Amino acid sequence: VDHRFQINLRGVIDLLSHHLYSSPGVYVRELLQNATDAIRARQLLEPGHQGSVKVELIEKQDGGPPTLLFSDDGVGLTEEELHRFLATIGESSKREVLAERRNDFIGQFGIGLLSCFMVCDELLVVTRSVKGDGRTVEWRGRQDGTYSVRASEHPLERPGTQVFLVARQDAAEFFTAERVRQLARHYGGLLPFPIHLTAGGRTERINAEGAPWRRKYESASERRRALLDYGREVFGTDFIDSIPLKSSAGDVEGVAFVLPFSPHYNAKQKHRVYLKNMLLSESAENLLPDWAFFVKCVVNANELRPTASRESFYENETLAKARASLGQGLRRYLMDLAREDPRALQRLISLHGLSVKALALDDDDFYRLVIGWLSFETTMGMMTLADYRRTHGTVRYVSTLDDFRQVARVAAAQGLCVVNAAYTYDTDLLEKLPRVFADAQVEPFSASELPQSFEELNLDEREVVFRLLKVAEAALEPLRCDVTVKKFRPKEVPTLYSSPPEGAFRRDAERAREDSDELYASVLDSVLAAAPGSDRPLLTFNYQNPVVKKLAAVADRELMKLSVEMLYVQALLLGHRPLNAQEMKLLNQGLLGLIAGRLEGEDTGGQGGVH
Amino acid sequence: LTAQDWREQVKELMSRASRMKEGEAKVMALEEAARLADTHGDLDVAFEVRDALIDAGTFGGFPDKALVAFAWCRGQAKKNPDRFDSSMLLWKQKWVVARLDDFPHVTLKQIREALDDLEQTYAKADAGKRSVLKLRYQTARDMGAQAEAEQYWAQWVEAPRDHLTDCRACDQDDEIDYFIERGEHARAVEKARPILDGRLRCAEIPHLTYGSVLYPLLKLEQLEEARNCHLHGYPMVARNRDFLATVGEHIEFLALTDNLARGLTLFEKHLGWALNHASYRDRFTFHAAASLLLSRLVAEGRETVSLRLPKAFPLHQRQGTYETQVLHGWLEGQAKEIAGRFDARNGTDRFQKLLQRTHGLVNDVRPFPIDVEER
User: Fold this and answer.
1) A90-104, A170-184, B8-22, B108-122: range with lowest mean pLDDT
2) B153 pLDDT exceeds 90?
3) What is the pLDDT of residue A301?
4) In chain A, pLDDT over 70 holds for what percent of residues?
5) Which among A171, B171, B262, B373 is least buried, having the fewest CB atoms inside 10 angstroms?
6) Which helix (H) or strand (E) holds B111?
């Protein structure tokens, strides 16, 4: 008897191909899913049933479109069930309903079959159920919406299901032996029963013996090699190591691969995930804790719920637990590395320092183990924290780049080693040190403290520089900058400008106020009035420096003032401090003044001037 | 430090910043780049860097730095209207104006003028009034001008969307606050539903939403869901000081459900942000919630607690033992002081009332253990 679908089949197919599936190639996945479900259902009735899938590509003699025969030895369908799946299709005109229906066997069967209409116009399903009277039924459906159900004239010898697809002309690309093999491997590579492909007179098994991490290996090194080969095959990357993953929550198992390069700071790695051994997604993101962006992984989950789009897992309590225990596996790997192979850990840190730091911040035991191995930038170059503590005892650090730059110019010459903790996590990591190690001393350092460590002048020197000090004080008062004279290395540096940490922001705000319009200038005035940073910056003259020594002896008061102003501007520029309008004026006037002084000197026979 | 070409340095800093998560390190890298560009007088680079700095400051918890960068860009764009592409500045002006009332030292007149200015600027850009109306509603509400807030609310929700209005997720989230404010908890949760179900999201949603619905859910006795919102929501906000106020909401929730140890863990982890956060509004929320937490400990008869508080904390103890009474007094004092400054500026008693609300929360305590196995 011929029937007609009670629905607009075109609409459903359209919905499937545009919203649910990324490519027509997923028809292979859907057929494999149906076969898997059928085999699993039969295994429930007959424990011990192994199951197998056969795919046969039948080429037409006349060069017409080929037929694909897809057969399984699963549970099969009764006539009543066939009718039921048709009813399901009728309800499946909404995306949410489709997703919901996938959770029951018959629903999935129908939806899976519909996906075949993306590549063919006519489908023949021949099936014999394990249940019932052993009759073979066939269902022939066409894309125009008509179908027929009848007793088959070619009964099947054993229970199971065969699906015949006649390729549509414009979909022939999905019916080559190559493509079918590739698609079946892609989606069903982990399936625990054999899939055989017959094409051009040859039959081959196209999936290997289950998942690589479940196989037995002769030795640890063989296992390692096999897994790394697998990683290369899946992701096209030569990973540096593999880490086993396992979680009882969600029944997850798999392997993580350590990336051979540093990923972006906030990169979310895309993982390949299988659900009950069928490929679910190649771009699942929510599987590992945030800090674990140094690995890509392949896992199979048996008890996690996929999202409607089937691209990742639904965010629920089970997933949270699974994520925590997978993270635990990665942590264990890092812990073992720290204990057993510190050199390997160091190599890993050089690539994946940020991941390691993020974990260390949250995890005291891990922190204790790895903190010594982490490298920091210091005024004396890069060094590990362990090396730093061995040589310098108290850990001094600055938290801003600005501070570090101020300090870096002279600190090393003073024998002062200061850590640049302006990078992500570094300040937090250092501040954590005394909480984890009771004997550790950690102190924040500020550029404004630096002059305190400089050598004082002796009594005679004080007398010599006193006039310079007074002149400089008067010259820099309008710029709200204090002055002192000390001796420090390196002697090539004539002055050091240092300001408290908020100082740089204050200067930024002041310059923005100069450049902004009336409204926002007034707003910034209010902000500045309330901002901290009443401490004034300090210009320290270096009495070791020959120019400063000469300057202290200059008789011409104006020339001395001009030189002080120029040294001030130079100190700002060397410290990457942009000049405000007032300072810019000083620079311009000062340059002209010095040139004029020099020219006058030429006239009068070379007196005065600064070198 | 090598004397590498400054342009290379700026490029390196910019690309480093673009790869970073929101936060202090990112803001610092961009500030550094801006200073380099300024030192070398390159206005175009300086503009580009500051444009990025406005974003980093806004979404990384430094609204004062965003304001300064914006003020500079705006000045430049006004002086040289053809030189800079200021289309994005238009969009970012909203962010800056929205935070002005967070600074108690910014005057009422300045806030009003900034809102008027935004309205005019948007009118020139051929945008509708929806964005301005929302800001006017929120500002009026946060400053305690109730009648004005009601009036702008009514206009805002009816105004049509245009090219300068916030994304749908943000708008939806902002609507929730209105119902929370009025104590209409069921409606608040109903409004939040599309966000909680994952149908609406953006860079800061549902991060903010999970925090705001905690109290309404508690009042509705939907503690199971509240607990999930805490467990999902807190990790989203734990690493970015822009969410200081949301962290406060989580602390309040933990205090109200009698999860005091958990509450203390959050308190010690985030107090550092509150000590120097530019937004006094957010500081207030945090301190008020923390004082509730400490008052619960005092009520439980705990005289001391061990805490790892930052060195910058004025009462910092090296051994880490703190008297609960003293801590509570300090936190309460902070909240009061901030409330006083806001109310004086605003000429209303909103913050006084918010303090009273915090005091009244003892009646809402509803023990509900949150133990999940983390690992």
Assistant:
1) A90-104
2) yes
3) 94
4) 89
5) B373
6) helix B108-124
Most confident of A312-326, A447-461, B162-176: B162-176
Question: SS3 for B121?
Answer: helix
pLDDT at A611: 46
CB contact burial A563-587 (16+ within 10 A = b; e otherwise): bbbbbbbebbbbbbbbbbeebeebb
- Is B22:B57 a contact under the CB 8 Å cutoff? no
The pLDDT value recorded for residue B2 is: 44
Residue to test with chain A: of B64, B68, B341, B372, most A Cβ within 10 A: B68
Give the mean model confidence (pLDDT) for residues A559-572.
92
Distance in angstroms (rounded) separating the CA atoms of residues A107 and A77: 13
Give the side-chain half-sphere CA count within 13 A for A350.
9
**Would you call A321 an interface residue with chain B, using a CB distance cutoff of 8 Å?**
yes
Mean pLDDT confidence for A14-31: 75
Mutate to test the interface with A, among B15, B72, B111, B372 (most CBs of A within 10 A): B72
Residue A327's alpha-carbon distances to A226, A247, B106, B266, in angstroms, are 23, 10, 47, 22
Higher confidence at residue B88 or residue B355? B355
Per the structure block, which two tokens stand in for B105?
């030292």
Least Cα separation, residue A190 to chain B (angstroms):
28
Residues 6+ away with beta carbon under 8 Å from A598: A609
Which of A232, A223, A200, A11 shows the shortest CA–CA distance to A117? Answer: A11
B321 phi, psi to nearest 5 deg: -100, 125
B-chain residue closest to A323, CA distance: B375
List of chain B residues whose C-beta atoms are within 8 Å of the C-beta of residue A431 = 310-311
The pLDDT value given to residue A342: 87
What count of Cα atoms within 13 Å lies in the side-chain half-sphere of residue A446? Answer: 12
In this predicted structure, what is the pLDDT of residue A17?
Answer: 61
Question: Is residue B144 very low, low, confident or very high in pLDDT (cuts 50, 70, 90)?
Answer: very high
Mean pLDDT for the stretch of residues B343-356: 97
Answer yes or no: are the C-beta atoms of B111 and B342 closer than 8 Å: no
Is A578 in CB contact (< 8 Å) with chain B?
Answer: yes
Q: Give the angle subtended at the CA of A211 by the CAs of A206 and A213, to the nearest 5°.
A: 145
- Which pLDDT score, from 0 to 100, does residue A609 have? 45
Angstrom distance (rounded) from CA B211 to CA A483: 50
The size of the A-B interface in CB pairs under 8 A is: 125
CA distance A585 to A259: 54
Cβ atoms of residues A403 and A426 within 8 Å: no
> Which among A476, A481, A494 is positioned nearest to A565, based on CA atoms?
A476
- Looking at the complex, does the CB of residue A452 fall below 8 Å from at least one CB of chain B? no
- pLDDT tens digits along A53-85: 999 999 888 878 889 999 999 999 888 887 777
Q: State how far the Cα of A357 lies from the Cα of A294, in Å rounded to an integer.
A: 12
**Six token digits for residue B194:** 């599309």
Q: Which two tokens stand for residue A364?
A: 């005291």
Q: Can you tell me the distance from the alpha carbon of A578 to that of A511, in angstroms, rounded to the nearest whole number? A: 9
A264 touches chain B (CB under 8 A): yes
Residue B313 CB partners (closer than 8 Å, separation 6+): B271, B272, B275
Token readout for B222 is 């939907």
Q: For residue range A45-57, what is the model confidence (pLDDT) as tens digits?
A: 899 999 999 999 9
| Residues in contact with A107: Cβ distance below 8 Å, sequence separation at least 6, in sequence order | A85, A88, A92, A100, A101
pLDDT band at B75; cut points 50, 70, 90? very high
Cα first-last separation, chain B: 44
Give me the sign of the Cα torsion angle B20, B21, B24, B26.
Answer: positive
Tell me the one-letter amino acid at B289. Answer: A
